[in-house]
């Protein structure tokens, strides 16, 4: 923490963190997928090509399965060292071994093409399947927790091998006369914690230590098909409306045009 | 129940039966076990009287009561967290900096004008802290939020500590504070050092200072 460390191409780490906020990827004729704008510097000969480039037809067929947000990703190819960072958020690499991990779309920076990127059924999340390394950003260091666990929606970075991410609503304090009054009028407020994501079963849940979200990255719209969650009105069977949170004014709100 | 610091921006607390804890609304990150979060209309302890007092003082932050049996993790807004253990002394802190605190601590509001009279009021206006501050007294732990890291500076008799009002987070112990000015001619013509106002804390205790001049 005293004098600044000067790096050159030889001393830069290979596929490791330079500091908490910067990650260095070494390319030796290999390829990496990265989200646009996350590269801050590089040494050597590296080409950045948008996805949709004809040459990558095969690569994309095997390891990129979100055709609708292809415009957010580029392929880095060549040899050299490349530094990745994202708005001073903490950056970490994770290794997957024949596993699967689902991550918030805005938090994923880059991944090796040995992994396959797929859009999760949960809107706004991406799933990585296979073996390889990927780099993700989080606000504050990532904390790993084992289920059973309930997590604030904003604090969730992702999960691995968890069979059951689902919503959980606390209705305990809505009981009784006061509770009824509260849920009807919204007076008295909500604790802000009556809605969580619940995880049970074997696996790992990744938390970021704050509730400050990375800006939501467009993950591409899912096709408007019956049975596809988030697939537009009628698609998810929710009749196009979000579920009403406890403490909201309810239908009164709409009636008074609030 | 003490807080365990998981990293600079996250703390963990164990809640047991019969124990109670207060936390800022929306500050829960995750929990395990059977824990309930109830919005607290009074904004803390005491009855209607203390609620009105807090409202008038502008020290009413939305708090919630955390009860049950389990493990809770707290964090908020990407702010750094400092855990302060109190052993019978009083902590003065702005209410919106409170992340979570033990239910056994006694909560109150303090009129800052009572320390330093008119100058105390001027200080409140200058520092943006207002005229009132929240006090917590007793034995227990408090998790306080700050922008950037926090350093603890001890205050001993005869050796007062001067703090930039914007970087001041909290203080505990038997401490009096006053606003000291170093206003000179240069400030009048706009050539000041930008450090014309300082908070002077003297007595016996400690002050917590954040590494940033940004308010929460």
UniProtKB/TrEMBL annotation, chain A:
Taxonomic path: Bacteria, Bacillati, Actinomycetota, Actinomycetes, Kitasatosporales
PANTHER family given in the database record: ALTERED INHERITANCE OF MITOCHONDRIA PROTEIN 24, MITOCHONDRIAL
The protein's name in its UniProt record: AIM24 family protein
Region Disordered, residue ranges: 220-258
Gly residues composition-biased segments: 228-239
InterPro entries: AIM24, AIM24_sf, Trp_RNA-bd_attenuator-like_dom
TrEMBL record, chain B:
Lineage: superkingdom: Bacteria
Protein name: AIM24 family protein
């Amino acid at each position: 923490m005293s004098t600044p460390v000067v790096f050159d191409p030889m001393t830069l780490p290979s596929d490791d963190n330079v500091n908490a906020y910067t990650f260095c990827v070494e390319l030796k004729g290999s390829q990496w997928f990265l989200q646009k704008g996350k590269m801050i510097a590089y040494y050597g000969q590296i080409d950045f090509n948008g996805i949709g480039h004809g040459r990558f037809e095969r690569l994309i067929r095997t390891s990129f399965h979100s055709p609708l947000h292809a415009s957010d990703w580029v392929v880095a190819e060549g040899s050299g060292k490349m530094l990745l960072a994202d708005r001073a958020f903490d950056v970490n690499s994770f290794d997957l071994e024949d596993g699967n991990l689902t991550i918030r779309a805005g938090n994923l920076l880059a991944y090796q093409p040995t992994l396959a990127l797929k859009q999760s059924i949960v809107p706004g999340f991406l799933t990585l399947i296979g073996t390889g390394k990927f780099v993700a950003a989080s606000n504050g260091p990532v904390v790993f927790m084992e289920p059973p666990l309930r997590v604030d929606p904003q604090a969730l970075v992702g999960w691995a091998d968890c069979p059951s991410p689902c919503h959980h609503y606390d209705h305990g304090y809505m009981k009784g006369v006061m509770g009824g009054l509260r849920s009807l009028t919204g007076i008295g407020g909500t604790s802000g914690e009556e809605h969580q994501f619940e995880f049970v079963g074997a696996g790992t849940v990744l938390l970021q230590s704050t509730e400050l979200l990375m800006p939501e990255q467009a993950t591409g719209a899912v096709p408007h098909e019956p049975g596809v969650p988030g697939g537009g009105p009628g698609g998810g069977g929710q009749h196009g409306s979000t579920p009403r949170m406890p403490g909201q004014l309810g239908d009164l709100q709409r009636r008074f045009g609030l | 129940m003490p807080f365990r610091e998981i990293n600079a921006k996250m703390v963990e607390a164990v809640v047991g039966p019969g124990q109670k804890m207060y936390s800022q609304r929306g500050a829960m990150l995750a929990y395990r076990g059977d824990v309930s979060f109830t919005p607290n209309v009074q904004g803390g302890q005491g009855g209607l009287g203390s609620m009105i007092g807090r409202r008038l003082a502008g020290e009413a932050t939305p708090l919630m009561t955390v009860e049950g049996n389990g493990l809770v993790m707290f964090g908020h807004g990407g702010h750094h967290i400092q855990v302060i253990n109190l052993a019978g002394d009083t902590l003065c802190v702005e209410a919106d900096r409170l992340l979570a605190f033990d239910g056994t601590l006694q909560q109150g509001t303090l009129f800052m004008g009572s320390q330093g009279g008119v100058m105390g009021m001027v200080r409140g206006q200058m520092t943006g802290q207002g005229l009132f501050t929240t006090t917590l007294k007793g034995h227990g732990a408090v998790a306080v939020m700050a922008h950037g890291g926090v350093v603890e500076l001890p205050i001993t008799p005869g050796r007062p500590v001067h703090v930039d009002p914007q970087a001041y987070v909290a203080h505990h112990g038997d401490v009096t504070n006053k606003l000291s000015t170093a206003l000179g001619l240069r400030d009048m013509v706009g050539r000041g050092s930008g450090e014309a106002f300082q908070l002077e804390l003297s007595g016996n205790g400690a002050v917590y200072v954040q590494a940033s001049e940004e308010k929460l």
